[in-house]
Amino acid sequence: MRVNTISGRFAALTIIFVMLAELFILLPALASFRLDYLESRLERAQIASLAGLATDESIADDLESELLRNAGVLNVVLRRSDIRQLVLSSRIPAPVAQTFDLREDGVAQTIDDALRTLANPRNEVIRVIGAPVNQAGQLIEITMETAPLRAAMIDYGLRLLAVSAAFSILTAILLNLAVQRLVLVPIRRVISHMVSYAEAPEDPRQIITPDARLAELRDAETALATMQKTVTSSLRQKERMAQLGQAVAKISHDLRNILTTAQIFADRLEDSGDPKVRRAAPKLVNSITRAVNLCETTLAFGKAEEPAPTLSRFPLAPLAAEVVEAESLACGEGAQIEFLLDIPPALTIRADRDQLYRVLTNLARNARQAIEGTGKPGAIEIGAGETDNDWWIRVGDTGPGLPERAREYLFKPFSGSVRKGGTGLGLTIAADLIRGHGGRLELVRSTDEGSEFMIHIPRDMVVMPLRQAAGLR
């Protein structure tokens, strides 16, 4: 049994605590043993004195010595009818050092006398006074040596400690077996499940089933099962996302080639004789260019090489106007949606223009689709301003607002969409792009009267790769 294990430490602590308890029991036990020892010497002395009282003549010296030796005393004095009589006597080797009256000693005094006897290694002569048994006089007084008393007390204490140690070891063994059965076996089972789960965390069959009898262990197993279910679900979702990413990367590769060809033909439209075509050609070229850049960015993401934002200073109003124009053209037939811009013409911000265009487009598109879903007229407003610390952009609408579940999973992919057929990626991408700028995208308001999103981009930004900004490693 190793000490650095639960069972080993439990056994060691059990032995220590039992021995400490025995020490507290040992002191009263030794005091009681000393008292019994002295009382037995008084009784023996009283019995020995009967030989001297049975005859009026003095007893032989050798018989008197034998009686005193059998009683374990040096002298015996009886007080009867107020007469003090020396019944048996022998030579006292030293003066009397102490007198103990057993008729008056309390518990505390008895324990104190026992400790003093053990602590004093010298053989001294003491006087002991007590009451005779069977009312055979007023008192009996003996003198005796302390060496035999101390030896008997030490022998008794050692035997008591040996018995206590045996019981302590037995108790420790029994408790260790109980701990093994009730605690360590379930703990080893939990550890075994954790090891098995670590080898195949994506396998739901490795999730532990809580069945411990102890409430604490059952709570631990329940918490472990909940964590394992969450991890397994996240791994399966990440696996699906990885597969989707590979598919999107392949599609983006082919789509980029197609758009490159379309871009070549779009460039030739600028030479058209139709003025309307010449005016529309730059916008078409810009749209195709953005699509090509998006495909290239998607391919870079598939290679885990998502670039950081390319920062530049540019006026915000023209960019917002492009977003409004694109969404106005995308409005469904019969849709009555009014687009409002509240951006100071001189407001210039420092950001990645293409990424910010994607963010505003996602927010404006979501607002437009929400209003179109109601079949009622509505309005979308894009406003902006600046403070000493950051630039802010507000995108609000008069749509139906977001349901509670959508607000709970607003920026999580495949979870926050409320539109049938939607993926919920638009807000996730927008939030990741803004985080890449060191800023934040937040939902300020969402009621029956509409929703409002706020973008904050700090002036002193620390640009980070988008995958790191999204919390990916």
TrEMBL record:
Top class in the EC scheme: transferase
EC number, UniProt record: 2.7.13.3
Keyword Phosphoprotein: yes
InterPro entries: HATPase_C_sf, HATPase_dom, His_kinase_dom, HisK_dim/P_dom, HisK_dim/P_sf, Sig_transdc_His_kin-like_C
Membrane-spanning parts: 12-33, 156-179
Reactions this protein catalyses: ATP + protein L-histidine = ADP + protein N-phospho-L-histidine
Keywords: Kinase, Membrane, Phosphoprotein, Transferase, Transmembrane, Transmembrane helix
Gene3D superfamilies in alphabetical order: 1.10.287.130, Histidine kinase-like ATPase, C-terminal domain
Histidine kinase domain boundaries: 250-461
ATP-binding found in the keyword field: no
MF term (GO), any: phosphorelay sensor kinase activity
Lineage: superkingdom: Bacteria
Name of this protein: histidine kinase
Top-level taxonomy: Bacteria, Pseudomonadati, Pseudomonadota, Alphaproteobacteria, Rhodobacterales
